[in-house]
Amino acid sequence: MKLFLAISLSIVHLSSYALDVVFVNPSIPGTPFWDRVTAVAKAAAEDLSINLNIVYGKDNRVYHLEAMQKVIAAQKKPDFVIFMPYDGNAVATFELLESANIPFITIERTLQKNEQALIGFPQQRFKYWLGEVFHDNIYAGRLLANELIKAAKKKQPENKHLVAVGIAGSFSGESSERNTGLKQAIAADKEVSLEQIVPAIWSRERSRNIIFSLNARFGQIDVAWAASDGMALGVLDSVKSEYRDLNQSMQIGGIDWTVEGIKEVEKGGLAVSVGGHFMQTAWALVKLYDHTQGIKIFNGGDMGKTYDLEAITHENIHKYKRLASKVDWQKIDFKRFSRTYTKQAQYDFSFGQMLTALE
Length: 359
Hints:
Blueprint: H1 2-14, E1 19-25, H2 32-47, E2 50-56, H3 61-73, E3 80-83, H4 90-99, E4 104-107, H5 113-119, E5 129-133, H6 137-155, E6 162-168, H7 173-187, E7 192-199, H8 204-218, E8 223-226, H9 229-240, E9 251-255, H10 259-267, E10 272-275, H11 280-292, E11 310-313, H12 317-320, H13 339-342, H14 351-358
Helix pairs in contact: 2-11, 3-4, 6-7, 8-9
């Protein structure tokens, strides 16, 4: 009870000055997807008068934990921390923040089921864990697969049985759930067979080599599903190479909405890119802002997904092609998504809203 009183009192106190928020970017500077996450978050922070500090987890759970330890050990502690939990150290990270009495929000659900069970849901075991901002990775994997199958059938209307393969990421919960979505889509379509899913550990280079091995094993491949744009682009690199034994009509797609990925959808190299989650830290900042303005945002427990990912295809690329170049995120007034300003009972974090704001 004392804890919730302290957090409630902090809302009144924090609303009188700019918030200090740390975002622990799980990657390194120069990573296309996470660079865009950071750019959008900075624009949102400026509009919401939030002091946003970025630190990096360097794509490694040990470095990620060290980065969090430095944040907690700093003389001036942040008001809030936003981060993506890592498999293998989620409990340790949560315990650090809890012991330092620093409220935090997590982005994405990336953990395997056993570790997710250990941390539970917000405000259960860890009272300073305010809430989550995440999308459904199973849905994302299924959406990507369905769009690829549709594109392959359109390319080959003679009712040929389609051969599909999957290029997975790591062995994280995030990658596993995307794989589950792929399997669900294939199970629902008798005209497609999924021959194998091979992990490429998010590597473009490994994907280039894996597609050759899969081609040698299963013959011509019609659908190449990849858990990230980077790996999809690796498959495309090989299809474009001088090794012409690969199916030149192979339908390839990934997840992330990277600039290069969207450009390749526009050019026809990729059939689809699924994404929109580069907005996730900005959405977390919007929710934190509203929280400090006294709106009850975080109710604890499993509140369900915050938003869904969307697919960019040849059919709708005209709506999204502005994302294939550097975007001036300062054009968007992120207050238009804040319930403090909209006075709405629910958030609208659909990407259509974002495209309208960019016009």
